[in-house]
Amino acid sequence: MKKAYLGIDIGSISTKGVIIDEKNKILASEYLWTEGNPIAAVKQLLKKLEVQFKKKTYQIVSVGTTGSARKLVGAMVGASVVKNEITAHAIGTTSLYPDVRTILEIGGQDSKIILVEDGIVVDYAMNTLCAAGTGSFLSSQAKRLGVEVEDFGKIALTSKNPTNIAARCTVFAESDLVHKAQIGHQKEDIIAGLCKAVVTNYLNNVGKGKKILPPIVFQGGVSKNIGVTKAFEEATGQDVLVDQNSHLMGALGVAILAKKSKEENVFSFDITDMEFKTIGIECQKCANHCEIICVYRDKKMIDSWGNRCENGAIPIKNS
Amino acid sequence: MENCKISFPRFGNYHIALEFLFTKGLGVEYVTPPPSTKRTLELGSKYSPDYVCSPFKYNLGNFIEAIENGANTLVQTGGVCRLGYYGELHEQILKDLGYHVKFINMSKADYQKPLTFYNEFKKINPNLSLKRISSALLAFLKMVASIDEIEDFVRQNVGFEVHNGEMEKLQDAYLEELKTCENKKDVDKITKKYKKKLKDVKVKKPKKLIRVGIIGEYYTIMEPFSNHFIEKELAKKGIVIYRWMNVTNSVLKYDGKKQKKVIKNYVKYYMGATSMATVYKAVEWAKEGFDGIIHVKSFGCTPEIDAMPVLQKISNDYKIPILYFSFDSQTSETGIQTRLEAFYDMIMMRKEQK
Fold first, then answer.
1. Residue A291 sits in which domain range?
2. Which of A34, A158, A161, B176 has its Cβ near the most Cβ atoms within 10 Å?
3. B51 plus B190 within the same structural domain
């Protein structure tokens, strides 16, 4: 049996998974929507990954999780590594592009910039309090315009005269978009304008004060939108690389971290048949009322978190 | 008139010194607001303008909870930013809510001129004896300085305890014992005792120490609940934490001239509130080769927003990573964890490469 490693990136909008071998080669990969239910999404993801790789040749010996539901899913799959998405993305990308200096990342609800020097992260920033210029903004505008978000990039490229759209805030951008459409701007120009607005917003918020040096790699779900990639190239005056697996970098990174951890627990796909449930309890032991999350596997509690002090700790009974 | 039961918003561990000052110096009863919790913030937010900085909300929550515990006289301080208007606004809001309390607004008192406080204190107790208050004030100042000194020690060592929790326990016991002080001599004696106890706690420090400095806005940096216990989180990861900002350094031993000299390449004019100190410590720590700096502020704190472009320049000039946190009444715990973890990973990897 050869060793394999599983990395799962559970974002707010989409859930990604990869299985790699000892040489970081991707053996299987999958991408699907989280739809507000990370546990169901991960079960679905695992079912799809299971059929993609040779179970007779490879054995998954270590699992890593990242993304906003990393802790929950980490408890569920018994992960060796539970890592924040900034580190995971940086590890994933530098494994494929060791010379990269700037990683631009736009996901469903968040966006980040990671600056790299000699393969080491030297600075980063992540958007706060505001989802302007992220994937979910683009998909809601696509719906408004009656086009598929997947076609956005292609349509944007056909525009010769992109419409100027206020980029500062999602709400303002939306009303500006409606206004421009009503006064007769072409749909492709508006779409191209939206792609530009995303880039302007990104550079003014997340990228503020950061030196964007080449080589630049663009990743996350929005990197699949060629219109945004082109807008980045125009704004920075540099080539912007987009890997064919640009949406999988976080999952790849955390799979590599699981491999590096040397912590091995044979992973079984049986968990897709188990029942996982979470129950939130409000701790009543002080006025903080911490919300404690308890995770149950087949009615047995396997983990809990959320308490700010020891008083709220719920011991796990080992029977 | 009924007995005066005074209260002041809670921040850090200073309520112990304040209780001493008011009970021993002014001869009035003091009601310590209960420690800030989610309820405090919810109460404060409910009755505050949404866009006001979060310390205003915490303070208002503290006031309401102090009133619930029997306080009938509230004190608010002045300050050189929006803090200067807190008093009037808090007073008005509490009045509108129907609370009948006396409100003492200290915004006219000047921290550089202690005598101006005497005039304000006279409003609380007209029979105030100058001798009594002077002697209590000396002990009070010593108490503040000692609390800060002990905190500094804990901050830089707690991450390396052999037995987890020893220092925190000692610190709690220290603060508890401070409450028994009658004068400055007692303060000295108790502090000396606990300094020794803390030094005797077994610590194991690695050869390569990771040093991180915390800078930022006055309240958020000093009230652990409002910064989501960021110092504790960092200490757990085995980091030596430095914080210059406390009452000792910003008021008692304030040295504006020195600050101006250190930051002259970055700051030409007076910037207001804590922003000069923020830049000052960032420059000093960058020069000393710290592994990272964390900047904390409440959402919308204008003086600290002004300091941020300067910090970015310092970060570029000295190649020191700076992480920025802006805390609001609703801040996601996961978001903070993600950024802190990534910051830690980053400085660890940089360190290994060096």
1. 276-312
2. A34
3. no
**Cβ pair A246, A224 in contact under 8 A:** yes
In chain B, the DSSP E strands lie at 5-7, 29-30, 73-76, 102-105, 211-216, 240-243, 292-298, 322-327
B222 vs B245: CA distance, rounded Å: 8
ipTM of the complex: 0.81
Query: Percentage of chain A surpassing pLDDT 90?
Result: 55
- Consecutive H or E run containing B94: helix B83-96
pLDDT at A50 over 70: yes
CA B21 – CA B3 distance, rounded (Å):
17
Contact A120 B39 (CB under 8 A): no
Are B350 and A211 in contact (CB < 8 Å)?
Answer: no
By Cβ distance, the residue of A121, A129, A287 closest to B38 is A287
- Round to whole Å and give the CA distance between A103 and A206: 12
Nearest CB to A122; choose among B39, B321, B341: B321
Q: What are the distances in angstroms from CA A103 to CA A43, A243, B165?
A: 30, 12, 40
| pLDDT the model gives residue A319 | 47
Q: Is B300 on the interface with A (CB under 8 A)?
A: no
Rounding to the nearest 10 degrees, give the CA dihedral for residues A49, A53, A59, A61.
-40
B134: in domain: no
Among B175, B205, B235, the domain-final residue is B205
Interchain contact, A87 vs B345, CB within 8 Å: yes
Residue A41 has pLDDT above 70, yes or no: yes
**Which pLDDT band, with edges at 50, 70 and 90, does A317 fall under?**
low
Q: Is B216 contained in some domain?
A: yes
Enter the tokens of residue B15.
């309520």
- Of the candidates A121, A129, A308, the beta carbon closest to that of B346 is on A121
